[in-house]
Amino acid sequence: MNAQDATEHLQRYPSDTPVCFILWLPQDVIDRAKEQGISLNREQAGIILESLYENHDCSQ
After folding, report:
1. CA dist 32 → 7, 42, 43, 49 (Å)
2. Cβ 40 vs Cβ 30: under 8 Å
3. SS3 37
């Protein structure tokens, strides 16, 4: 999912609809990886974010 997809999805609901979400951007992933001694580029961070989105399980 990208920012445009998320925006379009949210626009389907009234602006006062309660929501909860956590926003991670590629730079967030890169920074956290760097803290662990791992070097990632923007493309790799995007792949990680896509995997997180596709495999997200709200029951966990």
Report:
1. 25, 13, 15, 13
2. yes
3. coil
Which amino acid, one-letter code, is at 22?
I
Instruction: Give the pLDDT band (50/70/90) at residue 59.
Output: confident
* Dist. CA 12–CA 26, nearest whole Å: 26
The torsion angles phi and psi of 18, rounded to 5 degrees, stand at: -65, 140
Q: How far is CA 19 from the centre of its chain?
A: 15
Residue 51's pLDDT is what?
Answer: 95
Give the tokens for residue 49: 């974010």
